[in-house]
Write a structure and sequence with these properties.
It contains four helices and two strands. By secondary structure, the chain is an all-alpha fold.
Amino acid sequence: MSDKSITSKILGIIAVVLGVIVAAGPHYIFPVCQYYGMLLETAAGTQVPMKCYWTAMAEVGLGALVIVTGIILIVSKHAETRRALGFVLAALGVVVALVPTNLIGVCGMAEHPCRMATQPALILLGVVTIIIGIVAIITARRAS
């Protein structure tokens, strides 16, 4: 097994771990307000989840995509494929970071758990995913 192959396997494993944390984090590790029993009441009197709940749900899908990309990176044998997967990981990292900030967002209250823990954690996870994607691109480019 070559050094490049080992590197892509390590990057793939890191991506899988990141994907699990992205998917599970807003629900279990750094939970959003929804898990503290906070709901919004509409003018009609019904209660609906806050934005942070929808951010947590979106991150489950994004985390799953990061996991699948990491698994494919682990089993991939071609440098071109690993390079393409690096671009996919970097793009997913951007979206992971944008969901709690610009795309969906979190609660407006600064003292809510989603603002204090979930949002910064997801931004950090997104940035780390971007870095792993860039490293995968660079190592795949050197291998070809």
